[in-house]
DNA sequence: TTGAAAGCGCTAACAC
DNA sequence: GTGTTAGCGCTTTCAA
């Protein structure tokens, strides 16, 4: 005696019985295979409804087709996990991914790859068929993970262009455009002595923001704006600002490559007795939390992270269904958020 | 002809062949069933090593045992997703979960439940066997989700005590203790007129922080500290502070129920020309990003979120392996992080 | 204690 | 176009 048969969740078999067809036909309908008689298809769809049938992912996976899930891999240098997760950037990207994927009825599996061996395992995880593909979010641009996925021939899409060129799809921001937005705004408000606090030179995004800023300033007839480097932390921004102030005392505008450094700049400026934006205008990048909690609140360049994340998911899904397509990259435009600092 | 047989990932069958035993025996060894001859067990383990065998989750799941994965469900009111994910709180909890689970070789699946129907689907997801249990992180305390899991008899553990009492395990912070830490600090620095900015009364954590603060102040002989309410946003903190200042002009210390409201208080205080901490000392709660980016930097009460998240995962895993155990709750102690505001 | 064998729910040849 | 059938890798009675 099989107990509680009626409490079982309905299977393909059940639907087939109700519709009066074979399992195969139901499978075809459920998977949208074209070669099915219209009348039968309707009957099957009705049966699916009445039974409340939902495909069993494990069975699908085992039968050798799709896993019905994708991996969201967070990669980074050893032990950088704490830092990654504490950054709202990660949360916003994750949110965008989850939200988009949910409309397709799929839930991402979170895989942490914060060591070389963990990266290998992440690839294995997907290779084993636990996921149909991977969304890769790296903290460091020179990450080895994208390469591993490319080599394994597994569907994968990156958030942000990899430092090492690889044939892989990615979404990214038009960083130069964002930097130009900032430069233009500074010049438009009448700043004549503009400097910038750049991020680490080995981070592509930081490079792009710097070069975008320089080019924009050159267009405004100021090709030699002062530059100080930071590492994206508040403290480094504070130091860089102090440095800039020492080198260019008459400076009246600053563009920082991220909000945290801009917040640090605000601190240094206050300590130096300069009013913001009256004496010095400041613009940040990212529109992250510090931008709205700092005093004054930061004018900043915002990234459509959620949209980018959704697009990243879309690209991956496409790549999974249409195997063997060429890598694609989608670049998004940032916009300026005007607040009180510039 | 079966192609590329050698590139297949090893199965139980392969291990069995190498070890010279049956699949059943290998299965027993792999699953730690006691009734296996010691010698055979060793042989099997060796075979597992040489073949590099790893169990296939889909097959396990299909065969009716464990899914080998757990769901991390983010619940909240309709459309609150954006907000949730942008908050580093979520990221830190997620990080703690992922990090702990990884040591057990399992990866959480992220499930968003930001509507009543989505909550139903989240329960279904687990009921269908896609996950062995769920970790529930709610934005609102009166969430229906915990109840749904309890009713379905599915293993689940909550982050934070639910407003509606339910027989379910959870981890939480000793909020009263944290509030007392703040009160004590304020009194110890010599504040004589202390007020508090409380959070929404329907949030258990906010209630606890308020009552903990009041009790501590009562112990110091000040049972009637002024209270203003906010909703955890910076703006609400600013408003509440202005209100407090109007009602209690000679106030010299403030405890805000979270850092964002404390940052707002800082703003109001600056506008009112009060120096912090010289005129008015301020203490926040959470040790979140604004605490270290504000000026002055906030002295605040810190929660060991990652530890709490790890413990939450541990409780769930326990509950999964030892079915039918009583709900457990683990309360963690906060600590004071001294910075510049008090 | 160990092995043989029956599925778990589904997909994909292959035959009709 | 549709049905039949052979697995996918694993767990788990049931015998031995």
Automatic annotation (TrEMBL), chains A, B:
The keyword rRNA-binding does not apply. Residues 10-64 form the HTH lacI-type domain. GO terms for molecular function: DNA-binding transcription factor activity; transcription cis-regulatory region binding. The keyword Chaperone does not apply. It holds the Pfam family Peripla_BP_3. SUPFAM superfamilies: lambda repressor-like DNA-binding domains, Periplasmic binding protein-like I. Keywords: DNA-binding, Transcription, Transcription regulation. InterPro entries: HTH_LacI (IPR000843), LacI/GalR-like_sensor (IPR046335), Lambda_DNA-bd_dom_sf (IPR010982), Peripla_BP_I (IPR028082). Signal peptide: none annotated. CDD domains: HTH_LacI (cd01392), PBP1_LacI_sugar_binding-like (cd06267). PANTHER family: HTH-TYPE TRANSCRIPTIONAL REGULATOR GALS, LACI-RELATED TRANSCRIPTIONAL REPRESSOR. This is Transcriptional regulator, LacI family. It comes from Kribbella flavida (strain DSM 17836 / JCM 10339 / NBRC 14399).
């Amino acid at each position: 005696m099989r107990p509680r048969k009626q409490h079982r969740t309905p299977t393909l078999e059940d639907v087939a019985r109700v519709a009066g067809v074979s399992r195969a036909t139901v499978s075809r309908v459920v998977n949208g295979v074209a070669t099915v008689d219209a009348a039968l298809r309707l009957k099957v769809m009705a049966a699916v409804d009445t039974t409340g049938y939902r495909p069993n992912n494990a069975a699908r996976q085992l039968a050798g087709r799709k896993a019905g899930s994708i991996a969201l891999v967070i990669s980074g240098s050893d032990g950088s996990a704490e830092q990654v997760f504490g950054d709202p950037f990660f949360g916003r990207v994750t949110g965008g991914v989850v939200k988009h994927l949910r409309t397709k009825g799929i839930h991402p599996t979170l895989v942490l790859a914060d060591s070389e061996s963990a990266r290998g395992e992440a690839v294995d995880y997907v290779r084993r068929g636990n996921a149909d593909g991977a969304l890769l979010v790296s903290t460091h641009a020179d990450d080895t993970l994208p390469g591993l996925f490319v080599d394994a021939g597994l569907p994968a899409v990156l958030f942000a262009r990899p430092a090492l060129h690889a044939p892989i799809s990615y979404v990214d921001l038009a960083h130069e455009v964002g930097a130009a937005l900032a430069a233009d705004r500074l010049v438009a408000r009448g700043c004549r002595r503009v400097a910038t606090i750049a991020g680490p030179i080995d981070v592509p995004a930081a490079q792009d923001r710097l070069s975008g800023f320089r080019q924009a300033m050159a267009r405004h007839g100021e090709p030699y704006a002062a530059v100080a480097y930071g590492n994206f932390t508040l403290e480094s921004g504070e130091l860089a600002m102090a440095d800039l102030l020492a080198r260019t005392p008459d400076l009246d505008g600053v563009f920082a490559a991220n909000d945290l450094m801009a917040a640090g700049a605000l601190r240094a400026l206050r300590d130096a007795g300069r009013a913001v934006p009256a004496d010095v205008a400041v613009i940040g990048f990212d529109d992250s939390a510090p931008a709205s909690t700092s005093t004054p609140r930061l004018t900043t360049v915002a990234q459509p992270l959620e949209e980018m994340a959704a697009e990243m998911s879309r690209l991956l899904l496409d790549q999974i269904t249409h195997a063997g397509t060429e890598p694609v990259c989608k670049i998004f435009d940032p916009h300026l958020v005007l607040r009180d600092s510039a």
